[in-house]
Design brief:
Elements: H1 2-18, E1 23-29, E2 32-39, H2 52-62, E3 67-74, E4 80-82, E5 90-101
Antiparallel strand pairs: 1-2, 2-5, 3-5, 4-5
């Protein structure tokens, strides 16, 4: 019974993290999934994004026994542009990790 409760809580936490906006679980299956997160090139790119750790936490919650990143890279068609009057345009992009849970 405890394992079922733990699994239920994990699913809720993953769902909440996925809705946060900065990092999202965009594909979820029995073997792993795909998680994306926001980054800006002018702020150091995907490696230093403040949302990278959120993406890693989502993978850790989904795969408590560990995971392997199968593929990573920029996603296409998921960027946004925002600007402030008098400032340069700031383009936000999404980076993705495709991962598999270790068994």
């Amino acid at each position: 019974m405890t394992a079922i409760v733990w699994l239920g809580l994990s699913v809720v936490v993953i769902g909440l993290l996925g809705c946060a906006g900065g990092a999202q679980l965009v594909r979820d299956d029995d073997e792993g999934g795909v998680v994306t997160y926001l980054y800006k090139n002018e702020r150091g790119g995907p490696a230093v994004s403040r949302y990278r750790n959120e993406a890693i936490e989502i993978m850790k919650l989904k795969c408590p026994q560990g995971y392997t990143i199968v593929k990573e890279g920029e996603t296409h068609g998921l960027s946004g542009v925002s600007s402030v009057e008098g400032a340069e345009d700031s383009v936000t992009r999404r980076w993705a990790f495709q991962f598999r849970c270790k068994t």
